[in-house]
Each structure stands twice: as C-alpha cells, then as structure tokens.
C-alpha cells in the first residue's frame, strides 16, 4: 500500500519455457476473464526439459524477475518442468529476498490433487519432459494424496522440440508419439488414466488419442489449473485485491515475435500479438 492506502494493482503473470503455457492461459482466461494477464514465453531458451536443475532455476528466476518488473503480484508457472525443478527453491529461497508479498504458484500440486479421482485400476500414466520425470514430483505428490495409486511416468523428450518447431501436425510427429506411448502401454497395460504432464502436449492430443486404448482417460491440465487458481483467489482476498481487472492480455516472448504470433494462436485459440522481452 502507498501513503494514501491505495493498493497498487497488477496483472497475473503466466509463464512457460515457450508456447505450452498458452494452453493453460487459454483455460484461465475462459474461467477468469475479468483479470489482466501478462504471458512470457522463454522461446529463445526452450526447451527447458533436458536442462540441469541450475539452468532451469536460473532461467525461471530471470523470468520471474521480469514479471515483477511488469507489476505482477502473482505468477503461475504454467510449465511442469519449472514447477518440478525450480518452484520450491524460488518460493523458499528467492522470494523472501525479492518480493516477500508476491506469490509464485505451479501446476503439479493442483494436478496431483485431481488426477487420483479418475482412475479405477489405480494405475496412472504421466507423460512429461525428462526433467519432470526425473524429479519424481508427480509420484511424490500423487502418492501423498492417493497412496493406493501407482504412477507410471514416461519421459517424451522429442515432443517439445517437435511442437516448438511447429511440426506437431505433420506426419513426422507420429513416429515419436507412437514410440513413447507404445513403450508405456506395453510395460503397463493396466493404465486407465493418462496425464499430459507437460503444457505443450495438448497440441499432440489428436495423435495421442489414436495411439492409446479407447477406454483410457486422457487428462490435460488447463481446466485443472484454472479451477485451482479461481479457488486460490477466493481463499486469498489479500492477493485478489492486488490484481487489476480490465480484461487486458499482454504477450511477451524472448525470441522472434512473428514466429510466436504464428504458432501461439494455435495454442491460445485466438490471434495474439506479442512483444519481445529481454530477461
Ligand atoms: N511446457 C513445459 C512443461 O510443461 C516445458 C517443456 C520444455 O521446455 O521442455 O514441462
């Protein structure tokens, strides 16, 4: 608050290494259209999925600082890899010195809270980047909430590069979609629930559907994260009052804006116009 007791309001920040977070952003604006939003895609340095903990933490933190400079009191990491590898360190070690009243939230916990409700066999498949799978974050979080559920994770390291390079509709993508899914379902045919644990993967949904048995429920995170954010804002009026509500949406990319606008609209579902940002 300033000296006139006026609360400085700002937009909600939505972050991903690249385009994937736009699939979550799309669901968030459809659930919560009144708020202002800023999206940053770190396309210049994507994919994050195969990078070390130190690098993912450094890149994510640099982007968080950019959101704070843009006046965002709340940032959602719409990226499983950053949520798995960097979120806890940012919340516990970085935020207190940086902006103790601001908040950074991830996508793994809200997804873990829901996913165990869908399975009848008790076997859930989780598809993610190498980083997300190696962190075992989904195993740990789902096991805390649903001890009877077994998580079978599969890293799909080729999927994000295919998507970031705009090849997701092309025939070449079919090979790698089939490869990882065949391996997973051959190892564990009992899986009846399949989580797309990477915000890029909904772009491959049509191809994924063709490769998995029909009875398997495929779960993307957009609506889960949007519902959880809505619930968070109801439970945290001290944050809700700090958010501006003029329905504005700003898009930033660390790379080429022409490419971002061209591909970004397929993830976001409507035309977008981005600006470049240096973090
Ligand atoms: N969309 C991201 C995720 O949910 C990041 C993928 C990447 O950069 O490798 O994990």
Describe the secondary-structure layout.
Blueprint: E1 12-16, H1 21-31, E2 37-41, H2 53-69, E3 74-77, H3 80-85, H4 87-98, E4 103-105, H5 108-115, E5 123-128, H6 130-135, H7 137-145, E6 150-155, H8 159-164, H9 172-187, E7 193-196, H10 205-211, E8 217-219, H11 222-235, H12 237-240, E9 249-253, H13 257-268, E10 274-276
Parallel strand pairs: 1-2, 1-3, 2-9, 3-4, 5-6, 5-7, 7-8, 9-10
The structure holds D-glutamic acid.
Ligand names: D-glutamic acid
The largest sheet is: 6 strands, parallel
Residue runs with pLDDT of under 50 for 5 or more positions: none
Number of strand segments = 10
Which secondary-structure class do the elements indicate?
A: alpha/beta
Distance between the termini: 27 Å
- Molecular shape: globular
Q: β content, as a range?
A: 15-25%
CATH architecture of the largest domain: 3-Layer(aba) Sandwich
Stated plainly, the CATH topology of the largest domain is called: Rossmann fold
CATH class annotation of the largest domain: Alpha Beta
The main sheet orders its strands as 4-3-1-2-9-10
Q: Write down the overall mean pLDDT.
A: 95
Number of domains: 2
Rg for CA atoms: 18 Å
Helix content: 40-55%
Q: How many H/I helical runs? A: 13
Give helix and strand order, one letter per element, not per position. EHEHEHHEHEHHEHHEHEHHEHE
């Amino acid at each position: 608050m300033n000296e006139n007791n006026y609360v400085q309001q700002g937009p909600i920040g939505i972050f991903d290494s690249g385009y994937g977070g736009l699939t979550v952003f799309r669901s968030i604006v459809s659930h919560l259209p009144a708020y202002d939003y800023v999206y940053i895609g770190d396309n210049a340095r994507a994919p994050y999925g195969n990078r070390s903990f130190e690098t993912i933490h450094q890149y994510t933190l640099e982007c968080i600082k950019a959101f704070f400079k843009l006046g965002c009191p709340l940032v959602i990491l719409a990226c499983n890899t950053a949520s798995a590898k960097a979120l806890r360190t940012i919340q516990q070690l970085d935020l207190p010195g940086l902006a103790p009243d601001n908040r950074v939230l991830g996508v793994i916990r809200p997804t873990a809270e829901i996913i165990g409700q869908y399975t009848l066999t008790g076997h859930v498949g989780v598809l993610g980047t190498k980083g997300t799978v190696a962190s075992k974050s989904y195993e740990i979080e789902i096991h805390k909430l649903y001890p009877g559920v077994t998580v079978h994770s599969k890293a799909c390291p080729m999927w994000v590069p295919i998507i970031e390079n705009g090849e997701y509709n092309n025939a070449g993508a079919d090979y790698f979609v089939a490869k990882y899914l065949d391996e997973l379902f051959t190892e564990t045919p009992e899986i009846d629930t399949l989580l797309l644990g990477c915000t890029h993967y909904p772009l491959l949904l049509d191809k994924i559907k063709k490769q998995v048995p029909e009875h398997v429920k495929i779960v993307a995170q957009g609506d889960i994260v949007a519902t959880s954010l809505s619930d968070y804002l109801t439970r945290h009026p001290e944050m809700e009052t700090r958010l501006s509500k003029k329905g504005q949406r700003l898009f930033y990319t660390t790379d080429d804006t022409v490419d971002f606008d061209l591909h970004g609209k397929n993830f976001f579902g409507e035309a977008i116009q981005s600006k470049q940002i240096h973090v």
